Amino acid sequence: MKKRVFYANAAILTVGSVILRLSNIWFRVLICGKIGAAGMGLYQLIFSVFILGITLCTSGVGLAVTRLVAEGRGTRGAIRRCLVFALALSFAAGAALFFCADFISVKFIGDPSAAMPLRLLAPGLPFIAVCSCLKGYFLAIRNTIVPVGGEILEQIVAIFASLILFSRISSPLSALMLGSTISEVSSCAYIVLLYLAFVRKRGFSNKKVNGIFRSILHIAAPVLFGSFFRSLLNSTENILIPRGLRKHGAGEKGALSQYGMMQGMVMPILYFPSAFLSALSMLLIPEMAEANARGERAAIQKAAERAFRFTLSFSFLVTSVLIVFAGDFGMLFYGSREVGNILRVMAPIVPLMYLDSVVDGMLKGLDQQLYSLKYNFSDSVMRVILIAVFIPFFGIRAYMVILFMSEIYNAALSINRLLKVTAVEVDVVGWIITPAVCAALLYYVLMLIKKIILFGI
After folding, report:
1. Among 33, 26, 16, which residue's Cα sits nearest to residue 276?
2. Distance, CA of 213 to CA of 405 (rounded, Å)
3. Helix 396-422 crosses helix 337-346 at what angle (to 10 degrees)?
4. Over the stretch 107-137, which tens digit does the pLDDT of each residue have?
5. Mean pLDDT of 316-334
6. Is residue 174 within 8 Å of 117, Cβ to Cβ?
7. What local confidence, expressed as pLDDT, does residue 208 receive?
Protein backbone atom coordinates (compact mmCIF):
# COMPACT_ATOMS: atom_id res chain seq x y z
CA MET A 1 0.00 0.00 0.00
CA LYS A 2 2.76 2.42 0.99
CA LYS A 3 4.69 1.66 -2.22
CA ARG A 4 1.56 2.26 -4.33
CA VAL A 5 1.03 5.64 -2.68
CA PHE A 6 4.68 6.56 -3.26
CA TYR A 7 4.57 5.60 -6.95
CA ALA A 8 1.22 7.32 -7.46
CA ASN A 9 2.53 10.52 -5.92
CA ALA A 10 5.72 10.26 -7.96
CA ALA A 11 3.65 9.92 -11.15
CA ILE A 12 1.52 12.95 -10.24
CA LEU A 13 4.56 15.09 -9.44
CA THR A 14 6.33 13.97 -12.60
CA VAL A 15 3.40 14.75 -14.89
CA GLY A 16 2.91 18.11 -13.18
CA SER A 17 6.61 18.94 -13.42
CA VAL A 18 6.75 18.03 -17.13
CA ILE A 19 3.70 20.20 -17.87
CA LEU A 20 5.18 23.12 -15.94
CA ARG A 21 8.59 22.93 -17.58
CA LEU A 22 7.17 22.52 -21.08
CA SER A 23 4.92 25.52 -20.57
CA ASN A 24 7.85 27.44 -19.09
CA ILE A 25 10.02 26.79 -22.16
CA TRP A 26 7.13 27.78 -24.45
CA PHE A 27 6.56 30.95 -22.43
CA ARG A 28 10.26 31.80 -22.56
CA VAL A 29 10.22 31.41 -26.34
CA LEU A 30 7.28 33.83 -26.42
CA ILE A 31 9.06 36.28 -24.09
CA CYS A 32 12.25 36.07 -26.13
CA GLY A 33 10.27 36.96 -29.26
CA LYS A 34 9.01 40.11 -27.54
CA ILE A 35 12.10 41.34 -25.70
CA GLY A 36 15.03 39.63 -27.49
CA ALA A 37 18.11 37.98 -26.01
CA ALA A 38 19.27 41.22 -24.34
CA GLY A 39 15.82 41.71 -22.77
CA MET A 40 15.94 38.10 -21.60
CA GLY A 41 19.26 38.86 -19.91
CA LEU A 42 17.71 41.82 -18.05
CA TYR A 43 14.69 39.65 -17.15
CA GLN A 44 17.04 37.04 -15.64
CA LEU A 45 18.92 39.69 -13.66
CA ILE A 46 15.69 41.06 -12.18
CA PHE A 47 14.59 37.58 -11.16
CA SER A 48 18.00 36.80 -9.68
CA VAL A 49 17.39 39.68 -7.25
CA PHE A 50 13.77 38.62 -6.60
CA ILE A 51 14.90 35.07 -5.81
CA LEU A 52 16.77 36.51 -2.84
CA GLY A 53 13.42 37.54 -1.35
CA ILE A 54 11.83 34.20 -2.20
CA THR A 55 14.71 32.34 -0.57
CA LEU A 56 14.48 34.38 2.61
CA CYS A 57 10.78 33.68 3.18
CA THR A 58 10.54 30.07 1.94
CA SER A 59 13.84 28.23 2.43
CA GLY A 60 13.70 25.96 5.41
CA VAL A 61 10.15 26.76 6.51
CA GLY A 62 8.44 24.42 4.05
CA LEU A 63 10.98 21.74 4.94
CA ALA A 64 10.25 22.30 8.65
CA VAL A 65 6.52 21.73 8.07
CA THR A 66 7.20 18.58 6.04
CA ARG A 67 9.57 17.14 8.62
CA LEU A 68 7.37 17.97 11.65
CA VAL A 69 4.23 16.49 10.08
CA ALA A 70 6.05 13.40 8.74
CA GLU A 71 7.59 12.79 12.18
CA GLY A 72 4.20 13.09 13.95
CA ARG A 73 4.88 16.54 15.46
CA GLY A 74 2.73 18.55 13.06
CA THR A 75 0.33 20.15 15.54
CA ARG A 76 -1.87 23.16 14.77
CA GLY A 77 0.44 25.35 16.83
CA ALA A 78 3.54 24.09 14.98
CA ILE A 79 2.13 24.94 11.56
CA ARG A 80 0.83 28.29 12.81
CA ARG A 81 4.31 29.16 14.10
CA CYS A 82 5.83 28.21 10.76
CA LEU A 83 3.35 30.45 8.95
CA VAL A 84 4.02 33.41 11.25
CA PHE A 85 7.76 32.90 10.86
CA ALA A 86 7.52 32.78 7.05
CA LEU A 87 5.18 35.78 6.85
CA ALA A 88 7.41 37.92 9.07
CA LEU A 89 10.36 37.19 6.80
CA SER A 90 8.31 37.78 3.65
CA PHE A 91 7.05 41.21 4.76
CA ALA A 92 10.59 42.26 5.66
CA ALA A 93 11.93 41.03 2.31
CA GLY A 94 9.04 42.61 0.37
CA ALA A 95 9.53 45.99 2.06
CA ALA A 96 13.27 45.94 1.36
CA LEU A 97 12.69 45.04 -2.29
CA PHE A 98 9.99 47.69 -2.78
CA PHE A 99 11.74 50.64 -1.12
CA CYS A 100 15.25 49.82 -2.36
CA ALA A 101 14.21 49.08 -5.96
CA ASP A 102 15.79 52.25 -7.39
CA PHE A 103 19.08 51.67 -5.58
CA ILE A 104 19.21 47.98 -6.60
CA SER A 105 18.37 48.68 -10.24
CA VAL A 106 21.05 51.37 -10.62
CA LYS A 107 23.88 50.06 -8.43
CA PHE A 108 23.55 46.32 -8.96
CA ILE A 109 21.53 45.55 -12.08
CA GLY A 110 22.90 48.58 -13.90
CA ASP A 111 19.60 49.56 -15.55
CA PRO A 112 17.15 52.07 -13.95
CA SER A 113 14.24 50.54 -15.89
CA ALA A 114 14.45 47.46 -13.61
CA ALA A 115 13.07 49.43 -10.61
CA MET A 116 9.38 49.21 -11.54
CA PRO A 117 9.45 45.44 -12.29
CA LEU A 118 11.10 44.87 -8.89
CA ARG A 119 8.36 46.88 -7.12
CA LEU A 120 5.68 44.89 -8.93
CA LEU A 121 7.23 41.61 -7.75
CA ALA A 122 7.56 42.62 -4.07
CA PRO A 123 3.86 42.20 -3.05
CA GLY A 124 3.92 38.56 -4.11
CA LEU A 125 6.37 37.46 -1.42
CA PRO A 126 3.86 36.95 1.45
CA PHE A 127 1.70 34.79 -0.80
CA ILE A 128 4.73 32.74 -1.85
CA ALA A 129 5.65 32.27 1.84
CA VAL A 130 2.20 30.93 2.76
CA CYS A 131 2.20 28.58 -0.24
CA SER A 132 5.61 27.20 0.72
CA CYS A 133 4.45 26.30 4.26
CA LEU A 134 1.19 24.69 3.18
CA LYS A 135 2.79 22.76 0.33
CA GLY A 136 5.14 21.33 2.94
CA TYR A 137 2.08 20.06 4.83
CA PHE A 138 0.59 18.37 1.75
CA LEU A 139 3.91 16.78 0.84
CA ALA A 140 4.19 15.32 4.36
CA ILE A 141 0.73 13.71 4.21
CA ARG A 142 1.65 12.23 0.79
CA ASN A 143 -0.83 14.38 -1.12
CA THR A 144 0.88 15.70 -4.23
CA ILE A 145 -2.22 16.59 -6.24
CA VAL A 146 -2.86 19.84 -4.34
CA PRO A 147 0.68 21.30 -4.65
CA VAL A 148 0.95 20.28 -8.31
CA GLY A 149 -2.48 21.75 -9.01
CA GLY A 150 -1.39 24.99 -7.35
CA GLU A 151 1.76 25.22 -9.46
CA ILE A 152 -0.12 24.51 -12.69
CA LEU A 153 -2.75 27.10 -11.78
CA GLU A 154 0.00 29.62 -11.03
CA GLN A 155 1.66 28.98 -14.39
CA ILE A 156 -1.60 29.27 -16.33
CA VAL A 157 -2.59 32.51 -14.60
CA ALA A 158 0.92 33.94 -15.08
CA ILE A 159 0.85 33.23 -18.82
CA PHE A 160 -2.66 34.54 -19.49
CA ALA A 161 -2.27 37.56 -17.20
CA SER A 162 1.00 38.48 -18.90
CA LEU A 163 -0.50 38.08 -22.38
CA ILE A 164 -3.39 40.38 -21.43
CA LEU A 165 -1.09 42.91 -19.76
CA PHE A 166 1.28 43.03 -22.76
CA SER A 167 -1.36 45.00 -24.66
CA ARG A 168 -2.16 47.32 -21.74
CA ILE A 169 1.27 48.13 -20.28
CA SER A 170 3.98 49.77 -22.37
CA SER A 171 6.84 47.94 -20.62
CA PRO A 172 6.89 44.18 -21.43
CA LEU A 173 9.00 43.50 -18.31
CA SER A 174 6.49 45.27 -16.04
CA ALA A 175 3.68 43.27 -17.65
CA LEU A 176 5.55 40.02 -16.96
CA MET A 177 6.24 40.88 -13.32
CA LEU A 178 2.70 42.04 -12.60
CA GLY A 179 1.40 38.85 -14.21
CA SER A 180 3.73 36.86 -11.95
CA THR A 181 2.38 38.56 -8.81
CA ILE A 182 -1.24 38.00 -9.86
CA SER A 183 -0.48 34.30 -10.40
CA GLU A 184 1.06 33.99 -6.92
CA VAL A 185 -2.06 35.47 -5.31
CA SER A 186 -4.31 33.02 -7.17
CA SER A 187 -2.13 30.02 -6.28
CA CYS A 188 -2.06 31.04 -2.60
CA ALA A 189 -5.86 31.36 -2.48
CA TYR A 190 -6.22 27.87 -3.97
CA ILE A 191 -3.72 26.27 -1.54
CA VAL A 192 -5.22 27.98 1.54
CA LEU A 193 -8.79 26.90 0.70
CA LEU A 194 -7.77 23.27 0.19
CA TYR A 195 -5.58 23.28 3.29
CA LEU A 196 -8.53 24.44 5.41
CA ALA A 197 -10.71 21.73 3.88
CA PHE A 198 -8.11 19.01 4.56
CA VAL A 199 -7.37 19.95 8.16
CA ARG A 200 -11.09 20.13 8.92
CA LYS A 201 -11.38 16.54 7.71
CA ARG A 202 -8.07 15.11 8.98
CA GLY A 203 -7.46 17.21 12.06
CA PHE A 204 -4.02 17.58 13.64
CA SER A 205 -1.69 15.42 15.65
CA ASN A 206 -2.76 15.23 19.31
CA LYS A 207 0.77 14.41 20.39
CA LYS A 208 2.07 16.91 22.94
CA VAL A 209 5.32 18.37 21.71
CA ASN A 210 7.68 20.48 23.79
CA GLY A 211 10.11 23.01 22.36
CA ILE A 212 8.38 23.15 18.98
CA PHE A 213 9.84 26.53 18.04
CA ARG A 214 13.31 25.21 18.83
CA SER A 215 12.61 22.26 16.50
CA ILE A 216 11.47 24.62 13.75
CA LEU A 217 14.64 26.67 14.07
CA HIS A 218 16.78 23.51 14.17
CA ILE A 219 15.34 22.36 10.85
CA ALA A 220 14.73 25.68 9.11
CA ALA A 221 17.58 27.92 10.27
CA PRO A 222 20.51 26.06 8.60
CA VAL A 223 18.60 25.76 5.32
CA LEU A 224 17.37 29.37 5.55
CA PHE A 225 20.78 30.92 6.21
CA GLY A 226 22.56 28.61 3.81
CA SER A 227 20.05 29.13 1.01
CA PHE A 228 19.90 32.89 1.57
CA PHE A 229 23.64 33.40 1.51
CA ARG A 230 23.95 31.07 -1.46
CA SER A 231 21.22 33.04 -3.25
CA LEU A 232 23.04 36.24 -2.34
CA LEU A 233 26.20 34.83 -3.86
CA ASN A 234 24.24 33.56 -6.89
CA SER A 235 22.78 37.03 -7.39
CA THR A 236 26.27 38.48 -7.11
CA GLU A 237 27.41 35.88 -9.62
CA ASN A 238 24.60 36.79 -12.04
CA ILE A 239 25.46 40.48 -11.78
CA LEU A 240 29.18 39.80 -12.28
CA ILE A 241 28.68 37.70 -15.43
CA PRO A 242 27.37 40.52 -17.72
CA ARG A 243 29.95 42.90 -16.25
CA GLY A 244 32.72 40.42 -16.96
CA LEU A 245 31.44 39.86 -20.50
CA ARG A 246 31.43 43.62 -21.09
CA LYS A 247 35.06 43.81 -19.94
CA HIS A 248 35.85 40.94 -22.30
CA GLY A 249 34.60 43.15 -25.14
CA ALA A 250 31.01 41.97 -25.69
CA GLY A 251 29.49 45.47 -25.27
CA GLU A 252 26.38 46.37 -23.27
CA LYS A 253 23.80 44.64 -25.47
CA GLY A 254 26.10 41.76 -26.38
CA ALA A 255 26.86 41.00 -22.72
CA LEU A 256 23.16 40.88 -21.82
CA SER A 257 22.46 38.75 -24.92
CA GLN A 258 25.13 36.18 -24.04
CA TYR A 259 23.97 36.07 -20.42
CA GLY A 260 20.31 35.81 -21.46
CA MET A 261 21.15 33.02 -23.91
CA MET A 262 22.98 31.02 -21.26
CA GLN A 263 20.61 31.49 -18.30
CA GLY A 264 17.30 32.09 -20.07
CA MET A 265 17.56 29.66 -23.01
CA VAL A 266 20.20 26.95 -22.53
CA MET A 267 19.69 26.17 -18.82
CA PRO A 268 15.88 25.64 -19.02
CA ILE A 269 16.42 23.02 -21.75
CA LEU A 270 19.26 21.43 -19.77
CA TYR A 271 17.07 21.22 -16.65
CA PHE A 272 13.87 20.14 -18.40
CA PRO A 273 14.48 16.34 -18.26
CA SER A 274 15.07 16.62 -14.51
CA ALA A 275 11.29 17.07 -14.26
CA PHE A 276 11.19 13.27 -14.25
CA LEU A 277 13.45 13.25 -11.17
CA SER A 278 12.12 16.21 -9.21
CA ALA A 279 9.29 14.05 -7.88
CA LEU A 280 11.82 11.54 -6.55
CA SER A 281 13.81 14.31 -4.87
CA MET A 282 10.74 15.83 -3.18
CA LEU A 283 9.17 12.56 -2.05
CA LEU A 284 12.41 11.23 -0.59
CA ILE A 285 12.41 14.01 2.04
CA PRO A 286 9.37 12.75 4.02
CA GLU A 287 10.25 9.11 3.29
CA MET A 288 13.77 9.53 4.66
CA ALA A 289 12.57 11.65 7.60
CA GLU A 290 10.01 9.02 8.61
CA ALA A 291 12.46 6.12 8.27
CA ASN A 292 15.13 8.06 10.16
CA ALA A 293 12.72 8.87 13.01
CA ARG A 294 11.93 5.15 13.33
CA GLY A 295 15.58 4.09 13.09
CA GLU A 296 14.94 1.97 9.97
CA ARG A 297 18.51 1.88 8.66
CA ALA A 298 17.87 -0.87 6.10
CA ALA A 299 14.98 1.07 4.54
CA ILE A 300 17.15 4.19 4.24
CA GLN A 301 19.94 2.23 2.54
CA LYS A 302 17.55 0.57 0.12
CA ALA A 303 15.97 3.90 -0.83
CA ALA A 304 19.38 5.51 -1.33
CA GLU A 305 20.65 2.67 -3.54
CA ARG A 306 17.55 2.82 -5.74
CA ALA A 307 17.80 6.59 -6.01
CA PHE A 308 21.43 6.41 -7.13
CA ARG A 309 20.78 3.68 -9.68
CA PHE A 310 17.69 5.27 -11.21
CA THR A 311 19.07 8.82 -11.28
CA LEU A 312 22.36 7.89 -12.94
CA SER A 313 20.72 5.54 -15.46
CA PHE A 314 18.25 8.23 -16.48
CA SER A 315 20.73 11.12 -16.59
CA PHE A 316 23.32 9.27 -18.71
CA LEU A 317 20.63 8.56 -21.31
CA VAL A 318 19.52 12.20 -21.22
CA THR A 319 23.10 13.28 -21.86
CA SER A 320 23.23 11.21 -25.06
CA VAL A 321 19.94 12.64 -26.31
CA LEU A 322 21.04 16.22 -25.60
CA ILE A 323 24.39 15.76 -27.37
CA VAL A 324 22.76 14.28 -30.48
CA PHE A 325 19.86 16.73 -30.77
CA ALA A 326 21.34 19.88 -29.19
CA GLY A 327 21.41 21.77 -32.50
CA ASP A 328 17.84 20.72 -33.30
CA PHE A 329 16.60 21.88 -29.87
CA GLY A 330 18.33 25.23 -30.29
CA MET A 331 16.69 25.81 -33.66
CA LEU A 332 13.31 24.40 -32.62
CA PHE A 333 12.87 26.57 -29.53
CA TYR A 334 14.87 29.70 -30.25
CA GLY A 335 15.93 29.57 -33.89
CA SER A 336 19.55 29.74 -32.73
CA ARG A 337 22.43 27.45 -33.58
CA GLU A 338 24.53 29.11 -30.90
CA VAL A 339 22.09 27.92 -28.21
CA GLY A 340 22.47 24.40 -29.60
CA ASN A 341 26.26 24.60 -29.56
CA ILE A 342 26.33 25.71 -25.91
CA LEU A 343 23.77 23.04 -24.98
CA ARG A 344 25.96 20.33 -26.54
CA VAL A 345 28.99 21.48 -24.56
CA MET A 346 27.01 21.57 -21.29
CA ALA A 347 25.27 18.20 -21.74
CA PRO A 348 27.98 16.05 -20.04
CA ILE A 349 27.35 17.85 -16.74
CA VAL A 350 23.80 16.44 -16.56
CA PRO A 351 24.50 13.23 -14.53
CA LEU A 352 26.20 15.11 -11.70
CA MET A 353 23.68 17.96 -11.83
CA TYR A 354 20.67 15.65 -11.51
CA LEU A 355 22.28 13.37 -8.93
CA ASP A 356 23.29 16.35 -6.78
CA SER A 357 19.65 17.48 -6.65
CA VAL A 358 18.36 14.06 -5.56
CA VAL A 359 21.15 13.61 -3.00
CA ASP A 360 20.37 17.04 -1.55
CA GLY A 361 16.76 15.95 -0.94
CA MET A 362 17.90 12.78 0.84
CA LEU A 363 20.31 14.71 3.05
CA LYS A 364 17.54 17.07 4.12
CA GLY A 365 15.32 14.14 5.02
CA LEU A 366 18.13 12.67 7.14
CA ASP A 367 18.63 15.88 9.14
CA GLN A 368 21.90 16.65 7.35
CA GLN A 369 20.87 20.10 6.11
CA LEU A 370 23.79 21.74 7.94
CA TYR A 371 26.23 19.85 5.73
CA SER A 372 24.33 20.87 2.60
CA LEU A 373 24.59 24.46 3.84
CA LYS A 374 28.37 24.27 4.13
CA TYR A 375 28.84 22.59 0.76
CA ASN A 376 26.55 24.99 -1.09
CA PHE A 377 28.06 28.04 0.56
CA SER A 378 31.66 27.10 -0.21
CA ASP A 379 30.65 26.21 -3.77
CA SER A 380 29.01 29.61 -4.28
CA VAL A 381 32.02 31.48 -2.87
CA MET A 382 34.28 29.58 -5.24
CA ARG A 383 32.08 30.39 -8.23
CA VAL A 384 31.91 34.12 -7.47
CA ILE A 385 35.69 34.33 -7.16
CA LEU A 386 36.30 32.38 -10.37
CA ILE A 387 33.72 34.42 -12.30
CA ALA A 388 35.19 37.72 -11.12
CA VAL A 389 38.72 36.62 -12.09
CA PHE A 390 38.31 34.66 -15.34
CA ILE A 391 35.25 35.88 -17.28
CA PRO A 392 36.78 39.32 -18.06
CA PHE A 393 39.68 37.46 -19.74
CA PHE A 394 38.03 34.44 -21.34
CA GLY A 395 34.34 35.39 -21.70
CA ILE A 396 31.41 32.96 -21.78
CA ARG A 397 33.70 29.94 -22.23
CA ALA A 398 35.17 30.58 -18.79
CA TYR A 399 31.67 30.53 -17.31
CA MET A 400 30.93 27.13 -18.84
CA VAL A 401 34.16 25.70 -17.38
CA ILE A 402 33.32 27.20 -13.98
CA LEU A 403 29.88 25.52 -14.05
CA PHE A 404 31.54 22.14 -14.63
CA MET A 405 34.03 22.67 -11.80
CA SER A 406 31.29 23.85 -9.44
CA GLU A 407 29.03 20.88 -10.09
CA ILE A 408 31.86 18.37 -9.65
CA TYR A 409 32.89 19.97 -6.37
CA ASN A 410 29.39 20.24 -4.87
CA ALA A 411 28.18 16.82 -6.00
CA ALA A 412 31.33 15.09 -4.74
CA LEU A 413 30.93 16.53 -1.24
CA SER A 414 27.18 15.82 -1.02
CA ILE A 415 27.48 12.27 -2.34
CA ASN A 416 30.35 11.51 0.02
CA ARG A 417 28.30 12.74 2.99
CA LEU A 418 25.25 10.68 2.03
CA LEU A 419 27.31 7.53 1.56
CA LYS A 420 28.91 8.09 4.97
CA VAL A 421 25.59 8.69 6.77
CA THR A 422 23.74 5.78 5.16
CA ALA A 423 26.74 3.39 5.03
CA VAL A 424 25.78 2.53 1.45
CA GLU A 425 28.47 0.86 -0.66
CA VAL A 426 29.03 2.23 -4.15
CA ASP A 427 28.11 -0.19 -6.94
CA VAL A 428 30.48 1.07 -9.64
CA VAL A 429 29.31 -1.41 -12.27
CA GLY A 430 25.58 -1.07 -11.63
CA TRP A 431 25.47 2.68 -11.00
CA ILE A 432 28.11 4.06 -13.39
CA ILE A 433 29.64 1.65 -15.92
CA THR A 434 26.43 -0.02 -17.10
CA PRO A 435 24.46 3.27 -17.55
CA ALA A 436 27.47 4.87 -19.29
CA VAL A 437 27.80 1.98 -21.75
CA CYS A 438 24.05 2.04 -22.45
CA ALA A 439 24.22 5.81 -23.01
CA ALA A 440 27.14 5.38 -25.44
CA LEU A 441 25.18 2.75 -27.39
CA LEU A 442 22.14 5.03 -27.45
CA TYR A 443 24.31 7.86 -28.81
CA TYR A 444 25.50 5.76 -31.75
CA VAL A 445 22.01 4.44 -32.46
CA LEU A 446 20.53 7.95 -32.45
CA MET A 447 23.34 9.28 -34.66
CA LEU A 448 22.75 6.44 -37.13
CA ILE A 449 18.98 7.09 -37.18
CA LYS A 450 19.62 10.80 -37.66
CA LYS A 451 21.93 10.19 -40.61
CA ILE A 452 19.46 7.78 -42.20
CA ILE A 453 16.66 10.35 -41.88
CA LEU A 454 18.77 13.30 -43.12
CA PHE A 455 20.85 11.66 -45.82
CA GLY A 456 18.99 8.44 -46.59
CA ILE A 457 21.99 6.25 -45.80
Report:
1. 16
2. 39
3. 30
4. 888 888 889 999 999 999 999 999 988 988 8
5. 90
6. yes
7. 61
- Phi first, then psi, for residue 168 (nearest 5°) are -115, -15
- Show the 3-state SS of the chain: CHHHHHHHHHHHHHHHHHHHHHHHHHHHHHHHHHHHHHHHHHHHHHHHHHHHHHHHHHCCHHHHHHHHHHCCCCCHHHHHHHHHHHHHHHHHHHHHHHHCHHHHHHHHHCCHHHHHHHHHHHHHHHHHHHHHHHHHHHHHCCCCHHHHHHHHHHHHHHHHHHHHHHCCCCCHHHHHHHHHHHHHHHHHHHHHHHHHHHHHHHCCCCCCCCCHHHHHHHHHHHHHHHHHHHHHHHHHHHHHHHHHHHHCCCCHHHHHHHHHHHHHHHHHHHHHHHHHHHHHHHHHHHHHHHHHHHCCHHHHHHHHHHHHHHHHHHHHHHHHHHHHHHHHHHHHHHCCHHHHHHHHHHHHHHHHHHHHHHHHHHHHHCCCHHHHHHHHHHHHHHHHHHHHHHHHHHCHHHHHHHHHHHHHHHHHHHHHHHHHHHCCCCCHHHHHHHHHHHHHHHHHHHHHHHHHHHHCC
Calpha distance 46→439 (Å, rounded): 38
Q: Is the dihedral of CA 230, 236, 239, 241 positive or negative?
A: negative
Cα–Cα dist 385/446, whole Å: 40
Residue 457 has pLDDT above 60, yes or no: no
Of 59-73, 257-271, 345-359, 388-402, the one with minimum mean pLDDT is 59-73
Max alpha carbon distance in the chain (Å)? 72
pTM over 0.70, yes/no: yes
Instruction: Give the pLDDT band of residue 226 (cuts 50, 70, 90).
Output: confident
CB 322 within 8 A of CB 344: yes
Among the ranges 27-41, 361-375, 381-395, which has the highest mean pLDDT value? 381-395
What pLDDT sits at residue 92? 92
Measure the CA–CA gap between 268 and 280, rounded to whole angstroms: 19
Q: Which amino acid is at 392?
A: P
Residues 2-50: pLDDT tens digits?
Answer: 556 666 666 676 777 778 877 887 888 888 778 887 788 888 889 888 9
Measured on CA atoms in the order 449, 455, 456, 457, is the torsion positive or negative? negative
Phi-psi domain of 60 (left: phi exceeds 0; alpha: psi -120 through 50; beta: other): left
